[in-house]
Design brief:
The protein has 13 helices and 4 strands.
Length: 415
């Protein structure tokens, strides 16, 4: 009887917090814009911007200061690549720079004066490249085109020196066309889930603090026995919203734009059951540090590129400096994105992403406990403010309801 009454009270308290948090979310237009407009529009916008994931025949200028047969051969090989088209051959960098400033070329390749001599002597030569960084595709094409020609040159040199030269074999099982769409969006999609959730939760928290409505942040309980269910009730509201957004982002958007889907949707959904709760607890924990609504917009510009880089999609995590490797463990996106890329792009199973799933589970537990601790500390801080009011009947501008607390008292069963 007592256990049944306790559970009935616990569920009633949880539902009260859950319903109140949903009301707070849907009554704040800024939070709705971040959750639904940004959360649903960003994945589509990214796909539209990078819909042409490959760029063929990018115009470039070659500055050949060597003028020998080897440099001319290098220039011809550049023009023969899929990525580059040599539109201009310049005598100096001034002319090439003028062409780039006038948007006639998107890249410059500088061949030094000693190139032919160094090649003839079988020594290392340095070729400089300059890319128009108004689009990352220009940099990608220039780097890839020049690297391909350089590797071919090295192979030709080895064939004249080594009895059995090293053979190069191109094997690109997951992105054969070097599409930037596949490369970038596989990481960016799940970043959207974490970042929009964090900014929305933090904006709501900052607004409530600015307006002094601490009753919307804290459990109405002087004994704080409702902190655990309070955090759980709030988290359920965000989990409910973002499971839907997560399914849209990770399953529907790739299907809509023809991105690789090498893992069954059911397993991607199972990944979301670990990733979304970790993001919720991460957001609730760090939202306690946000005191002003405007702070969120500064954090958006600062943190999003860092979170994207720390996923390891553009630089292998094995090459991270020690500090950044440890720092990356703070964010659920670090493990969620790696698991998503392995599963959705490379076709790994959920079991093969076990290390990332384990990390997300640990994050969920740690951040849940931290969120509860910070809520408790907020309760104690606010009680100190209440003690300075005049008399027990002083109005509470923050709406902190002490007379109607959560309670763990056992309600007698009428039966």
């Amino acid at each position: 009887m007592k256990i049944r009454s306790f559970m009935r009270q616990w569920i009633s308290d949880w539902y009260s917090v859950f319903a109140k948090e949903l009301k707070n979310i849907f009554s704040d237009s800024g939070v709705l814009v971040i959750f639904f407009l940004a959360g649903l529009a960003y994945p589509v916008l990214y796909n539209l911007i990078y819909s042409n994931g490959t760029l063929d025949g990018m115009p470039v200028a070659v500055v050949d200061l060597s003028g020998g047969s080897e440099s001319r051969k290098f220039t011809r090989d550049l023009d023969a690549t899929r990525e580059l088209s040599v539109k201009y051959k310049c005598e100096d960098m001034g002319k090439a720079r003028s062409l780039m400033e006038n948007r006639k070329v998107n890249g410059i390749i500088l061949i030094p004066e000693d190139y032919d001599g160094l090649i003839a002597a079988k020594r290392q030569a340095v070729i400089s490249t300059y890319a128009d960084m108004s689009s990352f595709l220009y940099y990608k094409n220039l780097t890839m085109g020049v690297n391909q020609v350089m590797l071919a040159e090295m192979r030709d040199m080895q064939s004249g020196i080594l009895p059995m030269p090293v053979k190069y074999e191109e094997n690109l099982p997951y992105n054969r066309t070097f599409s930037y769409t596949i490369f970038f969006l596989s990481a960016a999609l799940l970043i959207v889930v974490q970042q929009t959730m964090f900014y929305g939760v933090s904006m709501l928290s900052g607004t409530i603090r600015e307006e002094g409505r601490y009753g919307d942040l804290l459990p109405g309980n002087k004994s704080h026995r409702g902190v655990l269910r309070d955090v759980f009730g709030k988290s359920t509201a965000y989990w409910l919203i973002y499971m839907g957004i997560g399914i849209y982002v990770a399953i529907l958007v790739p299907k809509l734009f023809g991105l690789p889907q090498n893992c069954p949707p059911g397993q991607i959904m199972a990944l979301l059951f670990f990733y979304v709760p970790a993001c919720v607890m991460f957001s609730l924990t760090f939202s306690h540090l946000v005191r002003h609504r405007e702070t969120v917009f500064i954090m958006f510009l600062f943190m999003s590129p860092i979170c994207l880089f720390l996923t390891g999609f553009s630089w292998p995590e094995s090459s991270f400096p020690g500090f950044w490797e440890i720092f990356s463990f703070i964010f659920p996106s670090t493990f969620g994105v790696r698991a998503f890329i392995n599963m959705n792009t490379a076709g790994a199973s959920l079991a093969m992403a076990g290390e990332q799933i384990k990390a997300l589970t640990i994050q969920f537990i740690v951040y849940y406990l931290l969120a509860c601790l910070l809520s408790y500390l907020d309760c104690k801080t606010f009680e100190a403010r209440i003690e300075h009011t005049v008399g027990n009947d002083a109005p509470d501008a923050a709406g902190y309801d002490i007379q109607q607390p959560f309670t763990d008292e056992i309600i007698p069963d009428k039966q």
